[in-house]
What does this fold into?
Amino acid sequence: MQTWIANTRRELARDSAGPFSDGRKALLRMVDELGVTPGEVGTLARFVAYETIFGVLYRLDEPDLAEDDVLEVLQEQLPSWLLVEVVGKDLRQTGRVLTGLADPSDEFECRGQDRQLFSLRLRPGRV
It folds into this structure.
């Protein structure tokens, strides 16, 4: 985490108006002015990463447009997503899809700062 904060300082010094500079400035304010520890920053970063990844997996696994208040007449016309397994250069489908992506069970585990960020094991299913 210390390296990330040091890199943020260097990047801001190099380009104080670049992409996400407001986020970099907020990070340094948290650490320098508000006394947030690097460990707490790491915990927050892992939480944001988990929520982002889970949100994407949920959208891939549960593309229920009704839950998003989409008009019923549009639900059959709008695309949804499906994660499938393919092989070969021509991307032939094997007939297996990945399901259960949005189940936050022990199959999807967020770990502490000294280990890998996430462990995700998927069990392929059949179409």
Notes: Strands lie at 84-87, 92-98, 108-110, 118-120, 124-126. Residues 31 and 37 are 6 Å apart (CA to CA). The chain has four helices and five strands.
